[in-house]
Amino acid sequence: MNSEMKMKTRFLLRMAGSLGLVLGLLWVNPRPLSANPNAPLQQLYEEGMAALDAGNFEEAMLKLGRVLEARPDHARSRAAFQRAQLQMATDPGRNYRRQVASLVMREIDVQDVTMSEFVDYIRATVAAAQEDEEEVFVPNILLQGEGVNRHRFTLRLRNIPLDEVLRMAGQMAGVDFRYDRHAIFGTAAGGDAAEPEPASAP
Predict the structure, then answer these.
(1) Which helix (H) or strand (E) holds 166?
(2) Does this model's pTM top 0.85?
(3) Beta partners for 113?
(4) Alpha helix segments (H runs only) across 29-141
């Protein structure tokens, strides 16, 4: 065996010995993620940040708040929590609007209706479309003031998200819709809001 081959053999033997030592240490002392006491908090933080990025501010505040309960000194969670609070204050109805937008109306066909009649129709249609679902979401639409029924309108649409349906109906009837955390308020465009008048139950 020449000197070059001997050197290669020694090098390979050293590498094999080092690799065996590393594998032996890993086998004797494994460190799964579940053994890390910070793993649940890290997961909560990541879920909170994902909710914040998706615009789900209430969920973000819930997750980040749980992190801060355990780790009040966690600066990144505190900053993200405050950002979610600010977004909620600036646009409190964003989450509710997203829920409403997730409802796609397969068919809208109304003729010569007032806004109150239209809201009753929407509530009944949305409830009927979810009759086989375990959890039913029917938007809480509250009309304010007599001016909301000033105009009658006709509307025919197919496969349109409900938030767009309300926007179009509002344009035709002269009604502005405002989203809050748990309701949609409709007022006559350019008019003063009176006390809420909930639409009749379906």
Answers:
(1) helix 162-173
(2) no
(3) 153
(4) 39-53, 57-70, 75-90, 94-101, 115-129
Tell whether 55 and 83 lie within a shared domain.
Answer: yes
- The encoded tokens of residue 60 equal 């973000």
Are residues 69 and 101 both part of a single domain?
Answer: no
Tell me the mean pLDDT per 10 residues along the chain, length 202.
53 47 38 51 92 84 93 93 89 88 95 97 94 89 93 96 96 95 91 47 42
| Statement to judge: residues 73 and 155 lie in one domain | no
Q: Domain of residue 57: give its range.
A: 36-90
Exposure string over 57-76, b if 16+ CB within 10 A, otherwise e? bebbbbbbebbbeeeeebee
Helix-strand-coil split of the chain, %, nearest 5: 55, 20, 25
Q: How far apart, in whole angstroms, are the C-alpha atoms of residue 85 and residue 92?
A: 10
Give the CATH number, domain containing residue 154: 3.55.50.30
Claim to verify: residue 72 and residue 119 sit in the same structural domain: no
Residues in CB range of 63: below 8 A, 6 or more apart: 44, 45, 47, 48, 51
Looking at residue 14, its pLDDT comes to: 55
Q: Based on C-alpha coordinates, what's the Rg of the chain?
A: 30
Same domain, 46 and 76: yes
In a domain, 6, yes or no: no
Which of 27, 61, 90 is the C-terminal boundary of a domain? 90
